[in-house]
Specification:
Chain lengths: 231, 301
């Protein structure tokens, strides 16, 4: 379903810096309904890989396919068609500061043209799952880091996308919440979604017992079914 | 489609009402811009009035010798009337001239006494008005070459010539600088308003990129900003209209003392419909077009 083919991503230097090689000749496939974790230290290239799949960044070399389509051949005006099929939990949440929790989550369904009743029902459900029912009408700046992260998760799940990209989704959560979120991701996976989880949380990975791709300095050093976090 | 439109409008309204400070600043700048456009419109009215009242005052007078009979003068008037450049002619007989003269100087004892001594020293005359300043020369040429030349004592075109030419060069200068000035001011005002909206959208650029990343189409992103711009423009147009109605209502009588016959309030209310259309068009147009241009570069992510 998802294929990275000889991907290299080099960021040009800033005024005095050097060029950064974020990804170097990376190739792998993710099958439909697979649960894949991408692990590695900060700066290993995890987030860049996810950005490439979302067409947020262009590869310097190589191609990325989603369902047989070359992601970087899509016109910018049509990016939304790809992105509606992918739910993304961003590392820095990327919530809308001027929208309430409810509106942040509902937005994704609104853009897809869902009816008000459907939106209201789904948002209530998801809010319950992430435990934020009482925070529905608060703005992001009124929420704690963990709460914001849960809003971001709720927004990524609400429209039941085929693929979920989770970039450090548990980074700001306490161990109890972390476990809940991982269970939630497993549940969504059971319902048939493909999950790509980028994390450096050792415990999480070892609990999962799913495929693990390990990145180091932009290269894949390990790709194992039922992998573990090893450094 | 309909539901999306509803959502876009609602979202535009929410953006507008939640960012009160920014919305007020945008409206304020737009009120300035629309006021400027409106005052240019009114200014044009005032200059037109001044120009035409100046031009009203320009004419040439043909004085006839004392012995000339009225019927000859009237005959000449007929002839002059045939010249296409002539706008109108007024015949002032010796008696009318005296009447006007005494009317004007009735309080001046010395003048009145000397007048009583000499009798009526005034000459009969024709006051001729042409459509344009350059046409007076045609009229005087005709007078000088016609068979009536002998009846004429003097044509005061030559005395007045410099004044007449001066007035016309001033009025055309007023017109030209007025237009030039208006254009420059309008461009400045539009750029300021555009920049305000650009800054407002720059403020939301993060939000716009997130909208793109969670799968919103370009129109769904652009829409609320356009609605927001349109609301600001509309509000600004209404505020400007109210300000102008109030200000002109109080100012107009004072201006009328300065320029008798000029009533801006009347010309304002008389053109209210078209003025309001211009204001709405400027406000909403400015809001929408600026938003479209400003948002363009953030829709590439």
């Amino acid at each position: 379903m998802i294929k990275f083919q000889n991907i290299t991503k080099i960021y040009p230097p800033h005024s005095f810096g050097e060029t950064t090689i974020a990804i170097e000749d990376v190739s792998f496939k993710v099958n439909k309904k697979e649960f894949v974790s991408i692990v590695g230290r900060s700066g290993a290239g995890k987030t860049t890989l996810l950005k490439l799949l979302l067409a947020e960044e262009k590869p310097t070399k190589g191609r990325v396919f989603f369902d047989g389509q070359d992601v970087h051949k899509i016109k910018p005006a049509d990016f939304f068609k790809l992105r509606r099929r992918i739910g993304t939990i961003f590392q820095d949440y990327k919530l809308f500061p001027s929208k309430t929790t409810y509106e942040n989550i509902a937005y994704v369904m609104e853009v897809m043209g869902a009816s008000e009743e459907e939106i209201s029902k789904n948002v209530q459900e998801v809010l319950e799952i992430v435990g934020l029912t009482s925070r529905a009408y608060n703005f992001p700046e009124e929420l704690s880091g963990g709460e914001r992260q849960r809003v971001a998760i709720a927004r990524a799940l609400i429209h039941r996308p085929e693929v979920i990209l989770a970039d450090e989704p548990t980074g700001n959560l306490d161990p109890y919440n972390t476990l809940d979120i991982i269970r939630l991701l497993l549940k969504i996976h059971e319902f048939g979604a493909t999950i790509i989880l980028a994390t450096h949380d050792k415990k999480t990975i070892n609990v999962l017992g799913k495929r693990v791709i390990t990145l180091e300095q932009g290269r894949i050093i390990r790709d194992e079914e039922k992998g573990r976090f090893i450094f | 489609m309909l539901i999306s439109l509803k959502r876009i409008i609602r979202s535009g309204w929410l953006n507008f009402s939640r960012n009160k400070g920014l919305s007020l600043a945008t409206i304020f700048i737009m009120v300035m811009t629309i006021s400027l456009v409106t005052s240019l419109f009114l200014f044009r009215d005032i200059t037109q009035f001044l120009i035409s009242s100046l031009q009203e005052k320009v004419d040439i007078s043909v004085y006839f010798k004392e012995a000339v009979q009225e019927k000859d003068i009237l005959q000449l008037r007929e002839e002059i009337n045939k010249i296409p450049e002539v706008k109108n002619i007024e015949y002032v007989s010796r008696e009318t001239a005296l009447e006007r003269f005494t009317q004007r100087y009735k309080d001046n004892q010395v003048v009145m006494e000397s007048l009583a001594e000499v009798g009526n020293p005034l000459l009969a005359s024709l006051n001729i008005k042409a459509w344009e300043a350059s046409q007076y020369i045609t009229v005087t040429n005709f007078l000088e070459t016609s068979s009536y030349k002998n009846l004429i004592d003097k044509v005061d075109y030559y005395q007045r010539k410099p004044v007449i030419e001066r007035i016309f060069s001033i009025t055309s200068a007023i017109n030209k600088t007025g237009i030039g000035f208006s254009l420059i001011l309008a461009i400045v005002a539009i750029l300021v308003a555009f920049n305000t909206i650009r800054l407002a959208i720059y403020n939301s650029k993060e939000e716009i990129s997130v909208m793109r990343l969670v799968g919103a189409s370009n129109w769904f992103i652009r829409g609320p900003f356009l609605v927001q711009g349109a609301i600001s423009g509309f509000a600004a147009a209404i505020i400007t209209l109210l300000i102008f109605t109030g200000a002109l209502f109080f100012l107009s009588p004072k201006l009328e003392i300065l320029f008798p016959g000029l009533n801006i309030f009347n010309s304002f209310t008389g053109n209210l419909g078209i003025l309001f259309l211009i204001q709405i068009f400027t406000g909403v147009g400015l809001g929408v077009v600026s938003s479209i241009i400003a948002i363009r570069k953030y829709l590439k992510v």
